[in-house]
Amino acid sequence: MRTRRAMERLRRLIEWSNGKIDHRIYQKAYDYFRDAEYFLKNRRYYDAIAAADYAYGLLEGALLERGYDISHLY
Questions:
Q1: DSSP classification of residue 1
Q2: Is the pLDDT of residue 72 over 90?
Q3: Per-residue pLDDT, 74
Q4: What distance in Å separates the CA atoms of residue 17 and residue 42, rounded to the nearest whole number?
Q5: Is the N end or the C end of the chain the one with fewer CB atoms within 10 Å?
Q6: Contact residues for 66 (Cβ-Cβ < 8 A; gap 6+)
Q7: Taking the model in full, what pTM does it have?
């Protein structure tokens, strides 16, 4: 259940960051998010968490570099 909540938070972050960061970074984060969804669906929970964390890190780093406050998205 915790993983699904984390995925929903990540989905909101992805939606919010679209157009705010470099498209290549956004696309890579989105691809990792899709991988996480696949892993979650196939009950590969550790892989899902790892992929989601990587996507989150890419987005957070890119947004912070651009000066965006993302604390409201946690």
A1: -
A2: no
A3: 64
A4: 27
A5: N
A6: 20, 21
A7: 0.88
